[in-house]
Amino acid sequence: MEELDQTDRRILRALRRDGRLSNTKLAEEVGLSTTPCWNRVRALEERGVIEGYTALLNQQALGLPDTVIIEVTLERHDDDMLVRFGEALAGLPEVMEAYLLTGEYDYLIKVAVAGTAGYEEFLRRKLYKLPGIRHSRSTFVLRCLKRAHSVEP
Amino acid sequence: MEELDQTDRRILRALRRDGRLSNTKLAEEVGLSTTPCWNRVRALEERGVIEGYTALLNQQALGLPDTVIIEVTLERHDDDMLVRFGEALAGLPEVMEAYLLTGEYDYLIKVAVAGTAGYEEFLRRKLYKLPGIRHSRSTFVLRCLKRAHSVEP
DNA sequence: GTTGAAAATGCTCGACG
DNA sequence: CGTCGAGCATTTTCAAC
Questions:
Q1: Is the CB of B93 less than 8 angstroms away from the CB of A152?
Q2: Domains parsed from chain A with CATH numbers
């Protein structure tokens, strides 16, 4: 995989800040003319450096103002179990992020809910319906201090 | 704050999937003509439902393929300490997310690093330079199962 | 909310340092 | 590799309905 030069990184920074920048404005911002700028953007997309573009939506406005971190361990750890459980987690719309981990717990998930009532409902109606959970541990988020949607170029 | 009707939600879903959709294509997709579609999008932006647009960048391509979850507790918990520590965390470029928590640990942060070497360097050069840490606990992410950048409309 | 047309913008491609 | 410039397509914008 090829290296990213300083110009590529400036393009990425600009598009991370505003994913809707037109090629014209982007070129101006990074100090290039439109043609090479457009070629670079297309190359970055095709190489998978840019995975896509998305609108950032406000959780609160969508009725799910609270965030809970839930760590989960399974009863068994055969391949089949891990795959099925992971897929089931990813399928739940309340689950915003889900990771398979090293260490004490098998999974860490970040869930959007509406208060403790929404949290309880999620546990009972969704998470605890999944088979194979040995133990889970929940932590409410009091405040979000930072939430970047990509690593900084 | 006003409610979101089904059309608003369809607009949000489309823009979450592709943040660069033109108003024309968006209108077509949600079954509206361009004018009311554009009015709705602008209203959603002004109400803060849409917080912005961003390009999604590949961590691996940027040289930070690994993710570590670090939980931190502080020695003291006065207001000043909490605020300063939170700001310091948010300022570190490796830190992708940072939350103030209830429960056993005060903070949870998600950090992008390059392998164990990058992780050690982050700890020694960045995190452990911050004053006031009593204890921390790190967990490597083996695999990302889901990573939504906004809650589902 | 719809339609349609004018105006502006941005994209794409050539030739050329 | 980069710039410049012009034709072409889209899109935005703003009427009237």
A1: yes
A2: 6-47 (1.10.10.10), 59-141 (3.30.70.920)
